[in-house]
Amino acid sequence: MSQERKSTLLEAVNRPGRTVPFPRSESGKALYPSEIYNEYVFTTKDISKALPKPVFAEFLKQKRGHQNLSKATADAISHAVRVWAMDRGATHFTHWFQPQTDSTAEKHDSFLTFQSTLGGEYAAIDAFSGSQLLQSEPDASSFPSGGMRSTFEARGYTVWDTCSPMFIQPGPNGTKVLYIPSVYISYNGEALDEKTPLLRSCAAVSKASVELLSLISPRSVTSQSPAAQVTTTLGTEQEFFLIDRGLYSLRPDLKICGRTLLGNLPPRHQQLEDHYFGNMPSRVLAVMSEMELELYRLGVPLKTRHNEVAPAQFEVAPIFEEAAVAVDHNLLTMEVLHKVAHRHGLKALFHEKPFAGINGSGKHCNWSLSTDRGENLLDPSVKPETNYRFLLFLVAVLNAVHKHAAVMLASISSASNQHRLGAHEAPPAIVSIFLGTQLNEVLDSIEEKRPIRNFSVPQFQTVKLGGTVLDLKVSTLPHIERDLTDRNRTSPFAFTGNKFEFRAVGSKQSPSFPVTLLNCAVADSLREVTAALIEAKGDKEFPSTQDQLNVVRDFVIKSKPIRFEGDGYSSDWVEAAKKRSLPNILSAPEAFGELLKGPHKELLTKRVPIFSEPELNSRYHIMMERYEKDMLVESKTLALLVHSHVLPAAFEYRRLLGESAVALKAVSVTPTAEINLLEQTSAHLAGVSEKLKQLEDAIANLEEGGHGVKGAFIAHDVVYPLMDEVRTHVDALEAIVGDKFWTLPKYTELLLTV
C-alpha cells in the first residue's frame, strides 16, 4: 500500500467519534422528537399568533389561491417572521429556490440596514419589508436557462412560495439564516426552476381529480359535498453512500465526478447479502442521529433509517407530505446530510452509481392522491373489485403511464442514472407497472366479465381477496395481514398497497421534474376518464355503477400492455415489451428528445399546459447540454487519472519486474513468473495507451465540433463506450500492479472503512 493511502487509512480508523447529545428539558428529562419537531419552522400556527385575525384570514385566502397578498399583509408577515427569526439568532435571510441543477440556490442578505437621522447621520436598524419577503433578484443568466436568458438580459426573480413554510438553519458561530422557500422565474415570467412547473402540475391534478369526483360522488347521492381539493402526496426514500472523507480526498474522480471512474470490487462486497438491514456502524449511526435531530427541528418527518444492500450504502425515508413540501424536504435532507457527514469525517455520495458492480442508489418516489377530507384515492379498501372510485383512479394512472412511458423515462434519464438502470435491483429502462397478483386478477376479471378466481396458495396460508391473512402455524405468533401486492424491485413503477412507487428516479436528482411529468400525464388521463364517464351516462344525472364499470373495463383493455409482473431484467421481457410497443430507449439524449415529440409536447404545452413551448424547449436543451458537460468532465477526469496515477504506477511496476527478470537470468534462474507478469502488464499498458488516445481524440472532436444536442449524442455514442474500454484495461492493471505502487484508494478501503 502506498504511504499516503496507508496514513490516510490509519487516520480514518483512529479518528475519534463525534458526540451530539439529544436535547433535554430544564429538569434534565430527554425531550421527545415531537417536542423539538418544527422548532426552527415558522408554522401557520406561529403566523396566526403573530397576526391580527383579519390579516391572518387574508393570508389564508392567498395561500389557498383565492386572492393576492396586500402590501399591508405582506409587511405584517415580514415583521413577524423577522422578529421570530432574530429572537432565535438569525442575522440574514435568503430566498431558497431550485434552479435546474438538481440542487438548491441561495443568496444571503442581512437584516441590518441604515436609516438617516435628523442630524444627517445614519442609524443602524434591523428591518425586513414585505417587498423583501415577496421577491428577490438573482442573476438569471448565471443559471441554466436553455437560451431563454443571456448575459445582456440577466434579470430574474425569486418569489415566496407561501405554501411551503419558512425556516431557519444554524450556521457557524451560533448565527442562523432565515430561509424563504421560493419559485424562480425570468424577467418575462418564464419558469427557470423546478418548483414552478411542479406547483402548476399539482394544481392540474387537483382540478382534474375534483371534476371526476364531482361526477361520481355528487352531493345528491352522498351526505357530504364532493372534495374541493385533491393533493398530490409524496414520500421520497433517499439512498446514499457514506465513505471516509480522507480516502475520498485521495480519489479525484469521486471529488470531481461523484463516482469512481476506475476500480475493482473487493473479494467480499454485497454477495453474502449481510449488509442489508444489518447493524449500523457507530460512525454512521452518529451521523444519522445528528442529521435527524436537525431535520426534526426543520419539520422534516423522517421516519426510517437502515443499511442498504451494498457495503457503505444507507437509506432514510420520511412520512409522505404534500408533493411540493416533500420535494423541499428531500433537498433539505440531502443538504443537511452532506453537512453533518462532513462534521463526522465522512462524505455522503448521492451519485446513482458511485461504485461499479454493486447496487446503485435511487430516490424512490411514493406517489398518491389525497382529498381535502384525508381520503387516499389509491386505497383499494377491503374489496377493490367493487370500489369503483379506486378503480377509476387506478386505470387513469395506468393509462397515463402507458401513453407517456417515454416521457417518464426522459424525466429520470441522466449521465449519472444511466449507470444504475437495469441491474442490481434498479429498474430497467423499459417503463412498466407492477400491480401484484390480486389487483391483476381484479382487472382481468373485469376485462373478461367473469367472477374473481380463487387463488392457489400453500396450505399454511389462508387467503381471501380484498385482504390476506397469514397463519404461521406457530401458536406464539399472531396471524398477520398480508399486503395486496408483493414487491418487484425490477419494476420502474410499482403499486405498493395504497400508492405508486416510482423507483426509477435517481438518487442525485431533484424529484420535482419526474413528479411534474407524472402529474401532467395523470391529470390528462383523469380528464379522459371523466369524458368517457360523461359519454357513458348519457342523459342520466350521474353515471351508474354499471357505467363506471364499463369505463373501467375500457381503460383496463387500453392500458393492459403497461402491466408486467415478471423479471424486468430478463431478455424475454425485452422481446415482450417490443411486441407490446413499449419504448425501450437506452440512450439518455434519445430519451430527452421524447419531450418534444408530438403527443408528449402537446400534453405538456397544450392539453395540460404546465410549460410554454419556450419553457419546454429550454428544458430539453438544458438536459442535452448538461449530459454533454457531464460526459466531458468525466472523460477528462479519467484521462487525468490514467496519466497522473495509473501509468506511472504501472511503468514503475514493469520496470521493477524487468530488473528482477534480468537479475534472475544473471544467476541462471528462469524468470517465468516475472516474464508472465511483464507480458500481462505490457499488454494492458498497450491497451490503455491505444484506447486513451482514441478517447482523447474523441474529447477533442467533441469540444471542437459538438455542443448542445449534437454534442450529447457524440458523448453518448463515442465518448461513453471509449471510457468503458479504457477502464477495462486500467482495472486489469490494478489487479496486477503491486499494491505499494497504486496511489488511489481501492474499493476495499472506500467501501469497508466506515
Automatic annotation (TrEMBL):
It comes from Tieghemiomyces parasiticus. Transmembrane segments: none annotated. Keywords: Coiled coil. Residues 91-189 form the GS beta-grasp domain. Belongs to the glutamine synthetase family. The keyword Ligase does not apply. One of its GO terms (biological process) is glutamine biosynthetic process. PANTHER family: GLUTAMINE SYNTHETASE (PTHR42974), TYPE-3 GLUTAMINE SYNTHETASE (PTHR42974:SF1). Residues 678-705 form a coiled coil. Residues 213-646 form the GS catalytic domain. InterPro entries: Gln-synt_C, Gln_synt_N, Gln_synth/guanido_kin_cat_dom, Gln_synth_cat_dom, Gln_synth_gly_rich_site, GS_Type-3, GSIII_N. GO terms for molecular function: glutamine synthetase activity. The keyword Coiled coil applies. Pfam families: Gln-synt_C, Gln-synt_C-ter, GSIII_N. This is Glutamine synthetase.
